[in-house]
Each structure stands twice: as structure tokens, then as C-alpha cells.
Design brief:
Blueprint (H helix, E strand, L loop, with lengths): L3 H6 L7 E4 L3 E5 L7 E7 L14 H17 L7 E3 L3 H4 L8 E5 L9
Antiparallel strand pairs: 1-2, 2-3, 3-5, 4-5
The structure holds guanosine-5'-monophosphate and zinc ion.
Guanosine-5'-monophosphate binds next to strand 2.
């Protein structure tokens, strides 16, 4: 499949990993938008948040648990922004579900 993140999961494209288990992979974004910018993805190819099914309930719960673990490890104790872009209008460029952990700076109220 021609998916960059599936290739990262398969090890065909290198990445700077911060967390990995059987279901989830997290790695630093190649083009960081904040001092700490990590992408958390399911290893399974799911196109976006709107492609999730009941079958993925446990997976999504697990991803959110992992996000908490990573935030603690990265010392984002003062908070961070969590973003998942969906589709063209959402600005999604990689069509494999991912959560951006954006931290190390203080965000304002705007979403741009
Ligand atoms: P989206 O715009 O789809 O929400 O986010 C995709 C993100 O993936 C972007 O922030 C982009 O910088 C990142 N990205 C794209 N290709 C690669 C890659 O090959 N390696 C890494 N580490 N990040 C990537
Ligand atoms: Zn994929």
C-alpha cells in the first residue's frame, strides 16, 4: 500500500521513534511545528478518525493511554495540544490516522 506511515511501521522509511508496542507507534514529526512534535499512530491502517469502527474501540482507548505515557515521558506537565486532522478541509496530508502531540510552547486559543 502506498502509505508513508504504513512504510514507517514496516521500517521501510526510517523514523525517530519515541514509543512502540504491538498496536501503536509514535515518532517525531519530520517537520516540527512546535519544540516537541510527535505523531502517534495505530500500526493498523485506518484512514482517519471518521473511518473508525466499533472494532477499533479498544485500540483508540489504548492510543489515548499511550498519549498520556508519552506526554509524561516528554515532561509536558504543563499541557500540550492534541490534534487529529481529518480530510482535505481538515488539512490531513497523510491518510493514515494520526494524533499530533504539540508541546514545549504555549498555544493561544485560536486554531488558525
Ligand atoms: P497531517 O497534515 O496529515 O495532519 O500530518 C502529517 C504529518 O506527517 C505532517 O506534520 C508531516 O510533517 C509529517 N510527515 C510526513 N511525512 C513524514 C515522514 O516521512 N516522517 C515523519 N517523521 N513525519 C512525516
Ligand atoms: Zn497506512
Amino acid at each position: 500500500m502506498d502509505c508513508i506511515f504504513c512504510k514507517i511501521v514496516a521500517g521501510e522509511i526510517p523514523s525517530k521513534k519515541v514509543y512502540e508496542d504491538e498496536q501503536v507507534l509514535a515518532f517525531f514529526d519530520i517537520n516540527p511545528a512546535s519544540p516537541v512534535h510527535i505523531l502517534v499512530i495505530p500500526k493498523k491502517h485506518i484512514e482517519s478518525a471518521v473511518a473508525l469502527t466499533e472494532e477499533d474501540n479498544a485500540l483508540i482507548a489504548h492510543i489515548f493511554k499511550v498519549i498520556g505515557i508519552i506526554a509524561k515521558e516528554q515532561k509536558l506537565n504543563n499541557g500540550f495540544r492534541l490534534v487529529s486532522n481529518v480530510g482535505a478541509d481538515g488539512g490531513q496530508t497523510v491518510k493514515h490516522l494520526h494524533f499530533h502531540i504539540l508541546g514545549g510552547k504555549q498555544f493561544g486559543e485560536s486554531f488558525g
